[in-house]
Write a structure and sequence with these properties.
Helix content: 40-55%
Number of helices: 22
Bound molecules: 6-O-phosphono-beta-D-fructofuranose
Protein name: Glucose-6-phosphate isomerase
Keywords: Cytoplasm, Gluconeogenesis, Glycolysis, Isomerase
Oligomer: single chain
CATH topology of the largest domain: Rossmann fold
Active site: 354, 385, 513
Structural class: alpha/beta
Enzyme class: isomerase
Shape: globular
Subcellular location: Cytoplasm
Number of strands: 13
Distance between the termini: 55 Å
Length: 548
C-alpha cells in the first residue's frame, strides 16, 4: 500500500473540491429531484441515506475511483481469506470468521479450519449459558447464579458492554450482567456492594491474560469471594475466563475446563463476536447471540459482494476520507437517536481510533495525509442541549452520522415521534442553516426594534451546508445491532485501506504501559526521582504525602 496522494483520484479530488467550494447541499437537492432516492443504499436491515453530503455524482465517482486505486478489492479478499494483513504482528484478521460459522463450512487459515474452532467455542458457550440459565451451574452453597460480572478492559470490555446495553429489551430478567473495567478501585467496589458471592460468577476476559487492570480486578474479585466465605476448593464455581493465553489463565488460578478460547487472529476491539461476547450471551441468551452474529454476517456478505457504488461501508468510509482529507474535518460525530444505543459512540470511538490512529504506512514509511479523525458522540436528543450548538455554529466542520430506529421498544405517549422528529430536524438544520435576512425577518416579526435586529441578527446566522448521513432501521434487534457494528468495523477498514495504514495493530498504547509501571514502582518505594521532569516529580511527591 502506498500513500493515497500518489493515486490519480487523489489529485482529481483536490481540484474537484475547489470546484465544489461554492456548491451547497441544498442546491444539489434542487438540481436533482431524485437525489434522495439515488443516494441511498441498503444492507443488514439498515438504509443509509447519504444525500445530505457535499457530494454530487462526480464526487462519488472520484471517491469510488480512489477506493479502487487503493486496492480495496484485493484488501477485502485478503482479509476474508485469512492472509496475514496485520503485517506488524504477522497475523490474519478474521473477526469475519466469527460470524461465518453457521453459513460456511470451512475457512482454512495456516492449515487449520478456523470455523471448526469457532463452532466448538460457540458450543462451549452454549453449554455454559444454558447451565447458568437453567440453574444447573450453582454456586458453592448450591444456589442458582443471579449475577455475572464481566472483568476486562478495552476490546475485552466495551463491545460486550455496549451490545448488552443495546439489547436491553431482550435481556433475561433472572440474571444480571455487570461490567468492571477500570483499575480504579471504585469500579469494582461499587459493583461488589450490590452482590452476594454465593450467587455470583465472574468472567475474566483478557485475550493476553496479561493486562494490568484486568488482573488486578480479577485478584480483587477472588479476594472478595474468599472473604465472603467461598472456600478455595470451590472458587472454580465462581470463575470463568476467556483468553487466547490458556497457560497464563491456568497459572492465574482458572480451572482449565472454565476457560473459553480465543485466537490471535481476533483483534481485541473486533472481539465481541468471540467468547469475549459471553456476557452478551448470558444477558440475552444464546439464540439472540446467534442473531447478533447473523446480522454481522449479513453486513460481511454485503461488504464482500456488493459493488462499491452501493456498498454501505465503502460509501461511508469514502465520504469520511472526503471530509477528513479534503475539507480538513478533524472529528466525526455519531449521534444515535435511541436510548439503547447511547454508548455506541464510545465503542466505535475505540474501534476506529485504536485502528486508524496511525502515522505510518504499512511499509513503515510516514504517512503524507491525515489519518483517523477523533470519533465522538452521544444520544440525541440529549446532545441537542449540549454540544449541538458547536455542530451548528462552531467554526469546525463536523460530519455527523444520525442513527435511528423507526419504531421503539417503549412507546410512551408521543415520545417516539418527537424523538424521530428531532433527529430529522437536526440533520435538516445542519444542511439548511439560517441566513442573515431570515434572522432579521424573524426578529422583526417578533417585534424587535431595528436596533435590536442589527445587534442580534448576526448571532442567529447559521451557515448550514453541514453534511450528515442518516442510518435508519425498522427496529433495534440483535440482528440490526450486529449489522450496525459490523458496518462500522468495515468502514474503519475501508478508511485504513485508503490511507494505507495497518488498522489492526496498536503499538501506540505500549509506551504509556511501560512508563506506568516505572512510575508505579516510584510511588510504592523510596526512589531517586531526580531524572524525571519536575512536573512528574511533584505529582509523585504529592501522592506519597497524601497516602503516607
Ligand atoms: O491496551 C490496549 C489493548 O491491548 C486493547 O487493544 C485490548 O483490547 C485491551 O488492551 C485489552 O487486552 P486484553 O484482552 O489482552 O486484556
Amino acid at each position: 500500500m502506498s500513500s493515497p496522494t500518489h493515486h490519480p483520484a487523489w489529485t482529481a479530488l483536490r481540484s474537484h473540491q475547489a470546484d465544489m467550494a461554492d456548491v451547497t447541499i441544498q442546491s444539489l437537492f434542487t438540481q436533482d429531484p431524485e437525489r434522495a432516492k439515488r443516494y441511498q443504499a441498503n444492507a443488514g436491515g439498515w438504509t443509509l441515506d447519504y444525500s445530505k453530503n457535499r457530494a454530487n455524482d462526480a464526487t462519488l465517482s472520484l471517491l469510488t475511483q480512489l477506493v479502487r486505486e487503493s486496492g480495496m478489492e484485493a484488501a477485502i479478499a485478503n482479509m476474508f481469506n485469512g492472509e496475514h494483513i496485520n503485517n506488524t504482528e504477522d497475523r490474519p484478521v478474521l473477526h469475519v470468521a466469527l460470524r461465518a460459522a453457521k453459513a460456511q463450512q470451512s475457512l482454512i487459515v495456516d492449515g487449520v479450519n478456523v470455523l471448526d474452532e469457532v463452532r466448538s467455542t460457540l458450543a462451549q458457550m452454549e453449554t455454559f449459558v444454558t447451565q447458568l440459565h437453567n440453574g444447573e451451574w450453582r454456586g458453592y452453597t448450591d444456589k442458582k447464579i443471579t449475577d455475572v460480572v464481566s472483568i476486562g478492559i478495552g476490546g475485552s470490555y466495551l463491545g460486550p458492554k455496549v451490545v448488552a446495553e443495546a439489547l436491553t429489551p431482550y435481556k433475561r430478567d433472572d440474571i444480571k450482567v455487570h461490567f468492571v473495567a477500570n483499575i480504579d478501585g471504585s469500579d469494582i467496589s461499587e459493583k461488589l456492594k450490590l452482590l452476594n458471592a454465593e450467587t455470583t460468577v465472574f468472567i475474566v476476559s483478557s485475550k493476553s491474560f496479561g493486562t494490568l487492570e484486568t488482573l488486578y480486578n480479577a485478584n480483587a474479585a477472588r479476594a472478595w469471594c474468599i472473604d465472603q466465605g467461598v472456600p478455595e476448593s470451590d472458587i472454580k464455581k465462581h470463575f470463568a475466563a476467556v483468553s487466547s493465553n490458556v497457560e497464563k489463565a491456568v497459572k492465574f488460578g482458572m480451572a482449565e475446563e472454565n476457560i473459553f478460547p480465543m485466537w490471535d487472529w481476533v483483534g481485541g476491539r473486533y472481539s465481541l463476536w468471540s467468547a469475549i461476547g459471553l456476557p452478551i450471551a448470558v444477558a440475552v441468551g444464546m439464540e439472540r447471540f446467534y442473531e447478533l452474529l447473523d446480522g454481522a454476517y449479513a453486513m460481511d456478505e454485503h461488504f464482500k459482494n456488493t459493488p462499491f457504488e452501493h456498498n454501505l461501508p465503502v460509501i461511508m468510509g469514502a465520504l469520511g476520507v472526503w471530509y477528513s482529507n479534503f475539507h480538513n474535518a478533524q472529528t466525526h460525530a455519531l449521534i444515535p437517536y435511541d436510548h439503547f444505543l447511547r454508548a455506541m459512540p464510545a465503542h466505535i470511538q475505540q474501534l476506529d481510533m485504536e485502528s486508524n490512529g496511525k502515522a505510518n504506512l504499512v511499509d513503515g514509511s510516514g504517512v503524507e495525509t491525515d489519518t483517523g479523525p477523533v470519533i465522538w458522540g452521544g444520544a440525541g436528543t440529549n446532545g441537542q442541549h449540549a454540544y449541538h450548538q458547536l455542530l451548528h455554529q462552531g467554526t469546525r466542520l463536523i460530519p455527523v452520522d444520525f442513527i435511528a430506529p423507526l419504531t421503539t421498544h417503549n412507546p410512551v405517549a408521543d415520545h417516539h415521534a418527537q424523538l424521530f422528529a428531532n433527529c430529522l430536524s437536526q440533520a435538516q438544520a445542519l444542511m439548511v442553516g439560517k441566513t442573515l435576512e431570515q434572522a432579521e425577518t424573524e426578529l422583526r416579526q417578533a417585534g424587535a426594534s431595528e436596533e435590536q435586529v442589527k445587534a442580534i441578527a448576526p448571532h442567529k446566522v447559521i451557515k448550514g451546508n453541514r453534511p450528515s448521513n442518516l442510518l435508519l432501521t425498522d427496529k433495534l434487534t440483535p440482528f440490526t445491532v450486529g449489522s450496525l457494528i459490523a458496518l462500522y468495523e468495515h468502514r474503519t477498514f475501508v478508511q485504513g485501506t485508503i490511507w494505507g495504514v495497518n488498522s489492526f495493530d496498536q503499538w501506540g498504547v505500549e509506551l504509556g504501559k511501560v512508563l506506568g509501571t516505572d512510575i508505579y514502582n516510584r510511588l510504592v518505594a523510596d526512589t531517586d526521582n531526580q531524572e524525571l521532569d519536575a512536573s512528574t516529580q511533584a505529582a509523585i511527591a504529592a501522592f506519597k504525602q497524601a497516602n503516607s
